Amino acid sequence: MSPKLFDHYRKKEEVTIGKHLLIECKGRQAFLKEKELRALMEEAAAVAGATVLAHHFHSFGEGCGLTGVLVLSESHMTVHQWPEKGYAAFDVFMCGDAQPELSAKYIAESFSDSIVEVRSLDRCLPFES
Fold it and tell me: Which residues are tagged catalytic?
């Protein structure tokens, strides 16, 4: 018989390689101009101990949405804004010694006039002992 048939008898564990946070900001204040948003995200990365390698932001026109990304040594941060809906969605994924929870806290405090919801997901790899 194939050893694969007996895999369910082995003790399997997972090792966390990073944390992925989804941050939703809802309310009229959930919109920043490109320069302000980039500064906010760079500071959010810094407070988490992350290193920014590159960035790119794209505006869809005055009063329209904005999307942006920070490429981090520890992974990435992205944002998508819909000012007409009063909504901004951030994606923060970090590995290593970075602390993405500190980024989420900084973002939430920056949007204190909005409803902010944070969801967390551990990114894991199988680890067999």
Answer: 75, 80, 95
